[in-house]
Design brief:
The structure is a single chain. Helices cover 41% and strands 25% of the residues. The protein is of the alpha/beta class and 364 residues long.
């Protein structure tokens, strides 16, 4: 996977910018608040239209403009392709995030998930260890959406049924035929939920050992990382999920919402056998996330047959010298974008320097 060119118009503080990255390392340099992360985020949007910062449409469009436009030329499997992604403001002719792939209208940007693949890593990803289970589920789901296009559909159907079931549970006593409707929703939850759980379990079978090996290398063998999937039941058994839903039925009726299923699952991240969230130091947590992100990229390379683009936002400033050296070694020969306030850290690399200043982009 390689991005050859990106043209950005009216995207955040970038009124008009063109980026022609190197085949391997491109270093985006500049002071804070100049647009480096915005440019990195624009590359990430090509994966399917979502921001790794969780931004809404209005935040992506430059103030005073109606649309933001991203035009990219890239290679996937040695095949040249083009994406034109538009973010329209509310009230415009075409609001939201829409996309054209190789000149053909594909509708919503999410429809091209898996076409252009990337892995993003920024300091906020420490929430993978420190935060709640929602962030860890999102980590799994975002990776799986790029690897298996059908996963996004299954996840959305599952979440739609969860929302419908929650609405029923809140109004169960006044809903005619509520018991029959509840059974119908539970049957759908089993169908879509098992697909989500099966994919998550299979993905973690690949990711966990790769992340553990990365962590072992980062810590020079001094510490051990384990990642364990915590499903609500046997992820390969529809019967087990159906039984779990029957088991919690009365409790759900009292609570008024759905209490079990893949939307409430978690990962347990252990460092030397103890919870990384509770007992891990800042350095250990950072190393765990770095290990997981590098493993995410390597698994994507195995599944897709080519390595995804790496997007690293202000990462080196968060790492000591040993971890910096390890990371720079791991990204050799892979197309990587790194943002930094100090390009001196990359003096020992052959990276292409690109300077970002008040929304303008120029090569060094």
């Amino acid at each position: 996977m390689r991005l050859n060119r990106l043209a950005v118009t009216d995207y955040r503080n970038l009124s008009a910018a063109v980026l022609e990255p190197a085949p391997q390392l491109t270093v985006l340099c500049g002071a804070n608040g100049q647009g480096k992360t915005n440019l990195l985020e624009a590359v990430w949007l090509l994966t399917g239209g979502k921001s790794f910062r969780g931004a809404k449409d209005a935040e992506l469009i430059r103030r005073g403009a109606d649309f933001a436009v991203l035009e990219a030329a890239f290679e996937a499997g040695d095949r040249p392709q083009e994406i034109r992604l538009t973010v329209g403001a509310k009230g415009t002719q075409r609001p939201g995030r829409t996309v054209r792939l190789n000149g053909a209208d594909r509708g919503r940007a999410a429809s091209i998930a898996g076409t252009f693949t990337a892995v993003a890593f920024d300091p906020n990803h420490l929430s993978l260890v420190k935060g709640g289970p929602e962030g860890r589920r999102h980590f799994l789901d975002a990776a799986l959406c790029q690897l298996y296009p059908g996963y996004l559909a299954a996840e959305r159907r599952y979440l739609r049924v969860v929302a419908q079931k929650n609405a029923l549970l809140k109004a169960y006593d006044i809903t005619p035929g509520g018991d029959v409707l509840l059974e119908t929703y539970n049957e759908a939850l089993v169908t879509y939920g098992c697909e989500v759980m099966r994919r998550r379990a299979g993905y973690l079978d690949q990711l966990a050992p790769a992340a553990a090996a990365n962590y072992r290398d980062i810590s020079s063998g001094a510490e051990k990382l384990e990642i364990q999937y915590c499903p609500c039941c046997d992820p390969g058994s529809p019967e087990a999920l159906a039984a779990k839903l029957r088991e919690v039925k009365n409790t759900e009726l009292r609570a008024g919402f759905c209490l079990t299923g893949p939307h409430r699952e978690d990962l347990e991240i252990l460092i030397d056998g103890q919870s990384g969230k509770i007992y891990g130091s800042q350095g250990q947590q950072r190393s765990a996330v770095l290990s997981m992100k590098l493993a995410e990229a390597s698994v994507a390379g195995e599944v897709l047959g080519e390595h995804p683009v790496m997007l690293l936002d202000d990462v080196l400033s968060e790492l000591d010298d040993a971890r910096q050296t390890y990371l720079l070694t791991r990204i050799e020969d892979k197309q990587t974008f790194v943002t930094t306030c100090d390009s001196a850290a990359f003096a020992r690399t052959n990276g292409k320097l690109v300077f970002v200043d008040h929304g303008t982009v120029r090569e060094g």
